[in-house]
């Protein structure tokens, strides 16, 4: 059962994902908790505002209107990719939706059932982001805005340990809805999944282009150079997904020995060949030693911290 994120934790998660976040007015206490329960949180829902202009759209989502009292979401994502936080708690964004869809989101199933019922209170269970767009299929979606939607959803998923399958569009939840219109949720989930697979220690760096091979073979030197000592080989980063509870590998043992050597070992017995809570606690101590904090020091190895640990080949 996922407890709703506190205001501070949501703000930190978004900024840790590289987003520009503005705290709008009294967003920390702006909610509709008096109208019904808030939580447990089960997913992220994406909408479009059917409006234009950042300032007016943010005010609309903060206050709502006579037919639909605010707040109308938790964050507004404008055209330049800025996230404006407008609510903390229950918000009037999801409405009644399909209970079968909710169960599919909770189970993170690959395929969602059709949303053909409106029998479940989505305002209780979903965090909502409204993206500024007219929703007419013609209003463009700038690359900066799509990237911010990807980052905002990934930030919440990362905070909870969810996959991209915990992110849905309003049109997948409530019969008759079309938002977000202009891109598919399948394509956005693919983007979110790729982001979640990246190095948790920091943003991915672009790959350097490989040097082009010479057009003509070079002549061997007249005098052979003296052989140099073979450098120590280190284990390449196996990817964050490698480190699952119970994973058995000599790499885990080798990693644990290096953590002990660095003064970060948190083992009662070991290290052993199976990834355990002790391994994660030890690695979190290593991340903190490197200066990482918050979600970046969660004990799940990332490429940057792994390369600095220098785990020898096994």
Automatic annotation (TrEMBL):
CDD domains per the UniProt record, alphabetical: PGRP (cd06583)
A GO term for molecular function: N-acetylmuramoyl-L-alanine amidase activity
Biased composition (Pro residues): 212-230
InterPro entries according to UniProt: Amidase/PGRP_sf (IPR036505), Amidase_domain (IPR002502), PG_bind_dom_phiBT1-type (IPR047763)
Biased composition (Basic and acidic residues): 194-210
N-acetylmuramoyl-L-alanine amidase domain residues: 27-181
Record GO biological process: peptidoglycan catabolic process
Xref: SUPFAM superfamilies: N-acetylmuramoyl-L-alanine amidase-like (SSF55846)
Top-level lineage group: Bacteria
Region (Disordered): 194-231
Entries under Pfam families matching the protein: Amidase_2
Name of this chain's protein: N-acetylmuramoyl-L-alanine amidase family 2
Organism: Streptomyces microflavus DSM 40593
